[in-house]
């Protein structure tokens, strides 16, 4: 897989516009975070990329081919969605065999190794799995698919801290083992911050930002202190996410801090700090 190109995607559900003229180039061989508040359009975008629904207008191209009705292209994508698509009566090990039918690169041995690591019994029927183990089952299947494009929608739903940590470690191990593209759609932003290479932020059906996580965090900082002094400092700067507690105020400045900035900060007696990805996301989507 060499390229993923989204061109002018718009989607209406009746009179409600879920996506508004979205265009996006996704470079292969990276881990992306698709971040947005509830109702922002994340799931709609994923469903369009995976041909689960039809666009009102626009298209999705993978290696120059339209995904619509294209089994060859869709066979390169594995989508771990919140809903379980396997029959409840089916055993986990049987579902692995069926997945292999649709994804010839499915690694059965790897699936068994992962199942053992996560404590997933492959002899159990899917309907008997708890919420957490159903998530583990879907994650194991996705990772073992060896699809060049893996999409994970809320991949740690119901998992305890140990299993979440194990999932992220296995995801990174899988990613570094063989070049592939991964997209994670999740609300646990701070938890995945160290895993992501690029962030795609969607708001009200529009992409408002696509940037490397490193550049994103380096291009912003927090300033806090007495309200009047903070206001004086940010009067000529771009900022967002103001929080007031009594006489004190904190804001996120959407610029890279420079030497002259530090001189002003010290003169005004203000404090600075690094921005966390989740707090920056909240600040950007609350504008």
Walk me through what this model shows.
This protein is an alpha/beta fold. It contains eleven helices and 14 strands. The strands form three sheets. Strands 6-7-8-3-9-10 form a six-stranded mixed sheet, with helices on both faces. A hairpin with a 2-residue loop joins strand 9 and strand 10. Helix 4 packs antiparallel against helix 5. The two termini are 36 Å apart.
The neighbouring-strand order within the major sheet is 6-7-8-3-9-10
Number of helices: 11
Percent helix among the residues? 25-40%
- As a whole number of angstroms, the C-alpha radius of gyration is 22 Å
Keywords:
four-stranded antiparallel β-sheet; alpha/beta; 14 strands; six-stranded mixed β-sheet; 36% helix; 287 residues
What's the topology here?
Elements (H helix, E strand, L loop, with lengths): L2 E11 L2 E12 L3 E5 L6 H8 L7 E6 L2 E2 L4 H4 L2 E4 L11 H11 L5 H11 L12 H15 L3 E5 L7 H17 L3 E5 L3 H4 L5 E6 L2 E7 H6 L2 E6 H8 L4 E7 L2 E6 L5 H10 L2 E3 L3 H9 L2
Parallel strand pairs: 3-8, 3-9, 6-7, 7-8
Antiparallel strand pairs: 1-2, 1-4, 4-5, 9-10, 11-13, 11-14, 12-13
Helix pairs in contact: 4-5
Give a quick rundown of the structure.
With 287 residues, the protein is of the alpha/beta class. It is 36% helix and 30% strand. Strands 6-7-8-3-9-10 form a six-stranded mixed sheet, with helices on both faces. It has a four-stranded antiparallel sheet with strand order 2-1-4-5, with helices on one face.
């Amino acid at each position: 897989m060499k390229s993923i190109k989204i061109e002018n995607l718009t989607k209406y559900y009746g009179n409600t516009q879920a996506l508004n003229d979205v265009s996006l180039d996704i470079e292969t061989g990276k881990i992306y975070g698709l971040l947005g508040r509830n109702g922002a359009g994340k799931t709609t975008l994923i469903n369009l990329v995976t041909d689960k629904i039809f666009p009102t207008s626009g298209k999705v191209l993978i290696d120059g081919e339209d995904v619509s009705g294209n089994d060859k292209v869709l066979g390169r994508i594995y989508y771990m969605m919140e809903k379980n698509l396997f029959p409840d009566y089916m055993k986990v090990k049987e579902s692995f065999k069926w997945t292999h039918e649709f994804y010839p690169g499915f690694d059965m041995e790897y699936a068994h190794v992962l199942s053992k690591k996560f404590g997933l019994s492959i002899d159990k029927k899917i309907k008997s799995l708890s919420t957490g183990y159903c998530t583990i089952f879907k994650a194991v299947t996705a990772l073992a698919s060896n699809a060049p494009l893996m999409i994970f929608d809320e991949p740690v739903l119901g998992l305890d801290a140990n299993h979440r940590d194990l999932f992220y470690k296995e995801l990174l191990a899988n990613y570094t083992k063989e070049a592939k593209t991964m997209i994670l759609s999740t609300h646990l932003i701070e938890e995945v911050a160290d895993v992501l290479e690029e962030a795609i932020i969607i708001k009200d059906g529009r992409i408002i930002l696509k940037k490397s996580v490193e550049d994103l965090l380096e291009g912003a900082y927090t300033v806090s202190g007495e309200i009047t002094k903070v206001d004086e400092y940010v009067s000529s700067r771009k900022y967002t996410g103001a929080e007031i507690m009594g006489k004190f105020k904190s804001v996120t400045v959407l610029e890279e801090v420079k030497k002259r900035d530090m001189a002003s900060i010290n003169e005004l007696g203000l404090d600075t700090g690094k921005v966390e990805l989740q707090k920056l996301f909240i600040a950007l989507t609350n504008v």
